[in-house]
Amino acid sequence: MFERLREDIQSVFHRDPAARNTFEVLTCYPGMHAIWLHRLGSALWRRDFKWLARLVSNLGRWATGIEIHPGATIGRRFFIDHGMGIVIGETAEIGDDVTLYQGVTLGGTSWNKGKRHPTLEDGVVVGAGAKVLGPFTVGAGAKIGSNAVVTKAVPAGATAVGIPGRIIVRQPDDEVEARRKAMAEKIGFDAYGVSADMPDPVARAIGQMLDHLHAVDERLEGMCGALTQLGSDYSAKALPALPEEDFAAVEPVTRSDASVH
Predict the structure, then answer these.
(1) Within 13 Å of residue 221, how many CA atoms lie on the same side as its CB?
(2) Of all helices (H) and strands (E), which one includes residue 170?
(3) Which residues have C-beta within 8 Å of that of residue 67, sequence separation ≥ 6?
């Protein structure tokens, strides 16, 4: 019990620079109070004291403005910042080190029994006012932008924004990034827009085009090799470089323009 309490307090210090001391966190953070009351309500719910569990949940809602159904499953170091207006449904599942900001709804889109609320894996961050609706999974380390309405699964490490929610960032692995860079250099194009840390749909599209070009390039090389083995004297010419002046009027997307708050 005390270990969990210590973890809760440390999670506030790690994620809220406004926190000054332990006493302030214990007394002035409604997100913490809502989590502690939820643990009591959840324990009662699991022991089949349903009405009493709902009463504790309702008291927590009245005291903090945060509504967490006692049937929801919540992991360790869960942090609610500000918190007013948060709603977490009965079958929601939340992993470790998850952060929610004010006005977030983890809701359902069906009146049917069974799993109808989302699952948030470890390290997910959900921005203020976002609505995550349905029995799908938001992958580990993913981010949901403020005021987004997400109704489909979000891959691990991705960012979803907008109404309806769309994926704008999916971190490519090192091998894919290196391959794209090599292809961009080969065709003489400085692909400023394919950096993995720039949440830009155009950058993502360019990255996919480079993947396609890489596949076409490999296929052509294979065909040329096969022709040579058959005795052909065909010799492939080098690809022409793309003149830099053709792209002079294109302004790169800056990090500040593309960032999601």
Answers:
(1) 8
(2) strand 166-170
(3) 57, 60, 61, 86, 87, 88
Rounded CA-CA distance 195/172 in Å is 10
Contacts within 8 Å (CB) and 24+ apart, 202-205: 202/253, 203/253, 204/168, 204/169, 204/170
According to the model, what pLDDT value does residue 198 have? 46
Distances in whole angstroms, Cα of residue 254 to Cα of each of 104, 207, 244: 29, 17, 19
Q: Range of 192's domain?
A: 174-258
Confidence of residue 194 (pLDDT cuts 50, 70, 90): very low
Residue-wise pLDDT tens digits, 24-81 = 888 888 888 999 999 999 999 999 999 999 999 999 999 999 999 999 999 988 989 8
68 and 153 belong to one structural domain: yes
- Give the chain's end-to-end CA distance (angstroms, integer): 34
Same domain, 106 and 222: no
* CA–CA separation, 144 and 158 (whole Å): 9
Find out whether the peptide bond into 30 is cis, omega within 30 degrees of 0.
no
Same domain, yes or no: 178 and 166: no
Domain count for the chain, please give it.
Answer: 2
What's the CA gap between 22 and 15, in Å, rounded? Answer: 14
